[in-house]
């Protein structure tokens, strides 16, 4: 009876080197199989609305919105691919083989570094718009933004390939038993390339934007009523750019709050075990970030609320709906 019970706890009872099945508390199981799939569905749905909105309506085809579109695509894939594959990796036993283990780690997580790079691009866009508004139109052109977005995704694919190259050379090299999926990663490289460099860039750029925004707000308050027409127009443009900077500043702040805890633990020298309670919570924060971005747009961007209404009511299927006034 004891032998049967021990065999039942193994992933592959017929193999001597089989892993033992991991047991997890009921609360963790509820999070993994109920909460994470629910957030995954919500993340996919909300970001799909952002993608359709910016892609469909011509008024939204701007350089800044193209960066938001790229961010929405990366968040969309976080919900569509990262969550299901992560749930698969959290199963008590890995039954799909060593190569599938690597592919399940490689394919979904292309979108994770893309999110960080997109945030850097958004920060650069707002920095130029607020700190050098007169040359914004010549510096930040749609073609340049498209090239930057393409480079962003190319970097993400290359980064993941480089990140997992050692595992691809010999799949299953780091498994200690059958039924295990272990990926070896260079934590220091990941910390520097995916967190320290992007986060430092974002903070420096937005600190500069904040300083300029405060300075301009003070000058506008002290601005006398009798000004030249051209100067008045310039102030109006600056106000709109400052409003966009504040909105995207909230997006950046939420990104930092959701990603900092995971890398903070890494900086403190602690190792996160796959499937541990802390690891699951940190992963939940990443999903939460991808889900919150469209919610922020809904609060701060009137055009997003208008486009969602047009999408939900299927008015976008009408002829000439691309030319609708949503601003």
UniProtKB/TrEMBL annotation:
Subcellular location as annotated: Cell membrane
Transmembrane segments: 30-54, 66-89, 95-124, 145-165, 195-214, 247-265, 277-300
GO molecular function: trace-amine receptor activity
Keyword Transmembrane helix found: yes
One term under GO cellular component: plasma membrane
Domain of life: Eukaryota
Membrane topology per record: Multi-pass membrane protein
Annotated ranges, domain G-protein coupled receptors family 1 profile: 46-297
Protein name: G-protein coupled receptors family 1 profile domain-containing protein
Origin organism lineage: Eukaryota, Metazoa, Chordata, Craniata, Vertebrata
Gene: TAAR1
């Amino acid at each position: 009876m004891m032998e049967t019970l021990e065999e039942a706890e193994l992933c592959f009872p017929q193999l001597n080197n089989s892993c033992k099945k991991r047991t997890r508390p009921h609360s963790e199981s509820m999070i993994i199989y109920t909460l994470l799939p629910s957030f995954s569905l919500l993340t996919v749905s909300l970001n799909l609305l952002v993608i359709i909105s910016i892609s469909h309506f011509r008024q939204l085809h701007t350089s800044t919105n193209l960066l938001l579109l790229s961010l929405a695509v990366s968040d969309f894939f976080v919900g569509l691919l990262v969550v299901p594959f992560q749930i698969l990796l959290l199963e008590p036993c890995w039954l799909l083989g060593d190569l599938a283990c690597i592919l399940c780690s490689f394919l979904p997580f292309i979108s994770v570094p893309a999110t960080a790079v997109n945030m850097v691009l958004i920060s650069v866009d707002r920095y130029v718009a607020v700190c050098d508004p007169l040359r914004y139109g010549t510096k930040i052109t749609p073609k340049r933004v498209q090239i930057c977005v393409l480079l962003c995704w190319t970097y993400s694919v290359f980064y993941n390939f480089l990140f997992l190259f050692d595992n691809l050379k010999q799949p299953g090299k780091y498994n200690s038993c059958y039924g295990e999926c272990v990926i070896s990663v260079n934590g220091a490289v990941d910390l520097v390339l995916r967190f320290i460099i992007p986060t430092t860039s974002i903070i420096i750029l937005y600190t500069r934007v904040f300083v300029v925004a405060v300075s301009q707000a003070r000058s506008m308050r002290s601005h006398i009523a009798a000004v030249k027409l051209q100067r008045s127009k310039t102030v109006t443009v600056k106000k709109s750019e400052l409003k966009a900077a504040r909105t995207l500043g909230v997006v950046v702040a939420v990104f930092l709050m959701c990603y900092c805890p995971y890398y903070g633990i890494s900086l403190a020298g602690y190792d996160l075990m796959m499937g541990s309670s802390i690891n699951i919570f940190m992963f939940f924060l990443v999903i939460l970030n991808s889900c919150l971005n469209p919610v922020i747009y809904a609060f701060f961007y009137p055009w997003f609320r208008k486009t969602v209404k047009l999408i939900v009511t299927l008015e976008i299927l009408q002829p000439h709906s691309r030319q609708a006034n949503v601003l």
